[in-house]
Give the backbone structure.
Amino acid sequence: MIRVGILTISDREARGEVEDRTYAVLRETLAFGPYEITNYEIIPDEPAQIKRMLRLWTDRDGLDLILTNGSIRLSNRDHAPEATRDMLEKEAPGIAELIRMEAYKKNPLAALSRGVAGVRGKTLIVNLPGGPQGCKDSLEIILPLIPEAVQRITGRPVAQLANTLSFD
């Protein structure tokens, strides 16, 4: 199983002003694969808090995959890409580029997203958009790559999904 953490980054959701609608979408999208969601948190868009959660979930909890959602737009208040990048030991730019390239086909504004992806320790971290549809679409774009990426990062075999890409 791939142990997953979902980190929702949103000031309004952290204050309880609106409901986190992305968690359910991510949970449903991951339900048919080798995924176990073990960590979930909603935090405000504060770089120190984002870094703290990424550090805890990678270094203490040893998750295989962290999916952040929200806070990747061009707005002055969106800090997830910078905070994530500060925590990465290696970037995986192809993942974020693939998300933008494929998401652009449905929504040209996807080209303005600033999400990043990479590795800290033995954990793959990917920034996803905050809206439920964009989040779902983005995850579905990279879903075939995740088992192979986690296997390469952790060095342990991971059950492959029926429709994943073959790298043989």
The radius of gyration is 15 Å.
